[in-house]
Amino acid sequence: MNGPFTHRHPLDGAISAHPGRSENHVTVLPEPMVLSVAALPGEDDAVAAALVGVSATALKPLGPGEWLVVLEKADLSLQREIVEKAGALALVTDQSSGRAVLRLSGPKARAILAKIVPLDLHPEAFAIGQSGNTLFAHVSANVGRIGEDEFEIVLMRSFALFAFQELMEMGLEFRLTAGFAT
Amino acid sequence: MTAYRLSSGGLVDRSRPVSFSFDGKSHRGFAGDTLASALIAEDRLLVGRSFKYHRPRGVLTAGSSEPNALLTIGTGARAEPNTRATVQELYDGLVAKSQNRWPSLDFDIGAFNSLLSPFLGAGFYYKTFMWPKAFWEKVYEPFIRMAAGLGKLTMESDPDRYEKAWAHCDLLVVGGGAAGLSAALTAGRAGLRVILADEDFLLGGSLNASRAAIGGVKAPDFAANAVSELSSLPNVTLMPRTTVFGWFDDMVFGAAEKVQKHVAEPSHDRPVERLWRIVAKHAILATGAIERPLVFGGNDKPGILTASAVSAYVNRFGVTPGSRVAVFTSGGTGYRTAHDLKAAGIEVAAIIDTRDAAADRAPDGVKVHYRGAVVDTMGGKRLTGIITERSGFEEKIGCDALAISGGWSPVIHLACQRGAKPVWSAEKQVFLAPESDPRLALAGAAAGLETLGEAVADGAAKAKAVLSALGKTAATADVPEVEEQDFAGHQPVWYVGGARSKAFVDYQNDVHVKDLALAQRENYTSIELTKRYTTSGMATDQGKIANVNATGIVASMRGVDPAVVGTTTFRPFYTPVSLGVIAGTSRDEHGRPVRRSPLHGWAEKNGAVFVEAGLWYRSSYFPKGEEKTWREAAHREVMAVRKAAGLCDVSTLGKIEVYGPDAAEFLNRLYCNPMLKLPVGKARYGLMLREDAMVHDDGTVSRLAENHFFITTTTAMAGEVLSHMEFYHQAQWPDLKVRFVSVSDQWAQMAIAGPKARAILSKVVDADLSDEGFPYLSAREVRLKGGLVARLFRISFSGELAYELSVPAAYGEAVADYIMECGAEHGITPYGLEALNILRIEKGFVTHAELNGTVTADDAGYGKMMGMQKPDFVGKQMATRFGLTAADRMQLVGLKPVDPKNEIRAGAHLLREGAEPSMANDQGLVTSNCISPVLGHPIALALLKSGRERIGETIIVFDRIRGDEFPAIVCPTVFVDPENERLKGEAQVSPAPKEEASR
Predict the structure, then answer these.
(1) How far apart are CA B985 and CA B153, in angstroms?
(2) Looking at domain B293-406+487-502, does it have CATH number 3.40.190.10?
(3) Residues B655-681: pLDDT tens digits?
C-alpha cells in the first residue's frame, strides 16, 4: 500500500551497537501505532467513553481531555472504532511516524530510568498502567509503567536517537542491550 | 612505615597494604586510610604551601573542612587539583602532588613572600595595583595569578563519564554519624523510604573515632551494626561517599556521589561521579559540628592539628601525628584527645587550658596549665616546640605535635542556604539554624548537642517527629545507652593574646588577626565587608574553619556580642563539586539535545554539510566536486532551482493541526490577515502578531476540510507558537470549540522548487498537477504512486514554481530518494539552508532576521494584509497606535552597493551621506545579505527609517567592526522576478521581464 517506499525507523543503524539480550533490555517497536486524541472543549467524557476499548497500559492521559493511544502495531479496526466514535468530538491524529516507542525491561529498569527521568518510579507512586509526560534526558517524553519491571517510553521521532543514546549510556553499568521487537 | 603508624588499633585493614606516591616518592598505607592518614603515618606532615605567603602547612583536620592539605590527585587528563587529602580515600596506585610551590615543597622560592608580609596585608592588591589602569589586565593580573593560587587545572579533555540521577524518599538523613544512624534506624524500622547520605566512605561519623561504648558495644561496632541493619532494609538506601551540597526549592537536595574516585583506573561502564537530585518529603540534618582551631601566634605549623583530628587519626586510622603531643584547649575536647593519646600509648607533653579551672580530669601524670596560652611555636616543616605564657611567665615545651581545640561549630550550612540567618546562642556560644521549614530538622551536634548520648537520642526523636508528621508510628526500639566519659563544654577564646608571630584565622587564604583588625580600622566592619576585604572565608573551604572565629574576633575587636556581628551568607555548594558532575552527559555532541530531521539520512547520502539551527541539525549546503566554499555550492544550488529543480528539506517547520467548529474563527483571531473565508483545499500566507502588534511569526495556513486546518510555523518559533495558541485558547477565548495538536514530528516535509518541479512531481504524485488541476496555493491530501497518503501544497519560498510535499516521517527518506531518482533527468539538485536563504532574499521574503521582535506588519511591508475590518485579532488594538504607524519607523527595503565589489553585510548600520557615525544619525541596519547568483552582485535587505519613501536614495553602509563604509542604493525588496511570473513555472515565463517591457 505504500508502494516503493521503505519504512525507516529513527533508530535504524543505531540499535546494532547494543546487540544481544541481557536481562536489562530495550525493545524497540519497529512500527507502532500512535494516535493522539484531543477532545473538543466540553467533550472530555464522551471522548473518554469512546476509548474504553483501549487497554489501560496502551492509553496514556496527556492532560485534560487529551490522550495518546500506543499500540505495538497498527490496529486498523481499533483506529476505525475510535475515529467513528470520537472523530466528530475530538481531533484524532495519527502520530505513528512521529513517535518512537521503546520498552525498557529488566530488574534494573527502574534504576536506569532514575538516571533519566525525574518521576518517582517506586511502585507505590507509579503503578502499572500509570504514565506521565516528563523530561527524559533533556527532551520531553511519555513514560509509563506497563509491567512490574517494564516501562514504555514514547519519544518524539526527531529526538529519538539522542534520547536512545542517553538511555543506553545510563544502562552501561547494567549491560543494557537493545533490539527491535520481532 | 614509620613509628607514627601505631602497631595496632584503628579501622584500617592492615592485611591490605596499598602503595601510593607523593611528589614522586612512593609510600605505603592500608586500605581504609585516607591520603592524609597515610601521609601522617609516613612522617610526611608538610603537605602544602599556603596561598599567599607560601608558608609550610600540614594536615589540620580529619574531614572536609580541611584548609591546608590540598593536593593534586591523579595524572594527565585525570589530574584533579585542590583535592582535600583528609577525605581522599587511599587506593593502590594513587599519585598525589603538592601545589603552590616551586621548585619543591621542601624548598619553595615563593616563601620569600613571607619576608614581604608586612606589605602584603589585606587590601594590599587593591591599594597597590591601581595605577596605571592599562596595567590591570596586562601586567598586574597575570603577575598576581602566577604568584598566588592553588593547583593547576589540566587542559586535557576529561576522559571519564559523569551521570545525573533522581532519588525520591520520605526522609533524607544527611550525615551518617551517631544522630544520623539513629534517625535512619528509627525511620527505616517503621517502614519509611529513607535515604542516608554521608560524605565519608565509611559510615559512622565520629563514632568511628570514638572510644565510647553504645548499647554495650564499642562505638565503631555500633556504627557497623547499624549500617548492616539498615542495608538489610529494602526501604532504606545508604549512600556513602555522597556529599549533600545544597538544599533547593520544593525539598530537593543536591548531592554528589563519588562512584569511582577511589580507583586508579575507573571502569568506563560506570561514572566516576554522579549528581543526585534527592526529592524528600522530610529531611534531618545530622551533619555534626566542626571543631574550631584556637587563634594564637604560630598556629599554622605542620604538626598542629585540631584535637578531634588527632583523636580520629589515633582511634580510626591507627596513626599519630607526633610521638610527644601537647594539647591546647578551651574546653573538654582537648582532655578527651589527651585520653585517646594516652590510651594509644603516646606521650602527652602537657595540657594548656585557657580556662581558670575545669572539672575535666587529665590523664594520670599529665600536667595541666590553667589560664595558659600558647604565644608562639617552633619548628619549620614540623613542630618542635611551643612557648606558653601564664601571667608573664614563659615556658618552652618540647613537642612534635599540638592538638588544639577552640570548641565546636554546628554544621548548619544546608539549613541556612535558602535565606535563613544563623542565630547566635548565648547559652551554647554557637550559631544555630533557626527553624525555617517544618520539613527540615537538625539533629545531634548539628543542633548544638555535645555528647554522643544526646546525639543518639535526638536522632531517634527527630525521626519519630517525621513519622508522626507522615501519620506513621515508630516501632518500639529502645534508644541505646551510651557509656562515655563526660567532658565539659568550651568557654570560647576567640583570640589568644600575646602572639609573637602571625595568628592565622583563615589558613587557606592566609588571613591573620591583623588583617581583620585592618579591615575594622578602615571601616569594613560589616562581617560581609570584612570577608571581602580580607578574603577570610573566601577560599575553597568557604571558611568552614575560619568563619566563626572571624566573627568572634571581629565581635571582640568591636566590643560587641557575636550575635551583633552575625555570619556571612551560606550558599551551595557545601564543599566543591566538580564541573564534570554538574555537566553530566551534557558534553561534546550531547552538550544539547540533538534533533534530527526524518530526511537526515537522505541529506547525508547527498553529502550535506549540517549546521546547528536551534537543536536541529539542518542541511546547510551540499558541496560537489571541486567546490571549496559554502558559497560555491549554494550558488550552484540556487541556479539549479532557478533553471531546473531542487529539493530542500523543510521538515523542521512547526506543524500544527487545528480542528473544531470554531477552528476558522480561532485562526481568524490569531492571524492578522483574514482566515474565515479561506476555501477548503487552499493555503494562505499567515502573519501572526503579538499583543503589542510586533510580528510574532509567519507561516502558511491550509484548510483541509471545513473544520480542519493545518498550519506551519517557522522552525525557530514552533514551540512558542503552540504556547501562544494555548494561551489565547485557554485564557482569552475558552468558549471557542477548537483543539490543536502538534504534528511536527509526524510529517517529513520537502520543497520541490524550480521550473521542472511539476514534471518531476507528476511522476511521484497520483494527481493532476496542471494549473487547472492544482493551481497556485492549492493544499490537498494526495496519494503517491503506490498508494502512500501524503499532503501536497503549492506554495513557494523561492519565487519559483514550487510545491511542498508532506509524507509520514517514516517514509520521508524513501520518498525523497524516489523524487531524486525521478528528477535526475531534469537535473534535480538537493539544496540546503544557504541556498534557501539566497533564494528568499532575491525575492524579498522575510525570516526572523527581519521579523526581529521590533518589527510591525507595516514595517515589514505587510501593512495592507492586516484585516482591519475584522472585529478583533491579536495585535489589532496596538497596530493603530501612533508610535507604531509613525512615518519615520524603520521599514523594510532592499539595498544594492554602488560598487558591486562591496559586499553588504548583515549587522551593518545605515547613515545618510556625509553624516557622522553616531547613534543619533543611525538610519537603520542591514538584516540579511547575499551575493545574488542571478544578478551577479551583492544584495541585501535592510530596515531603514521611512525606507519605502527613500527608494533610489544613496545611503552609506557603515560597519566599524569589519571596517566597511561604502555607498549603496535603496531599492525595492524584490530583486528577482518582481511580477511573480516564475511562480507559474517553465511554460508561462515571459521572454522578457515585464517591468522592462512596460517602460
Answers:
(1) 63
(2) no
(3) 999 999 999 999 999 999 999 999 999
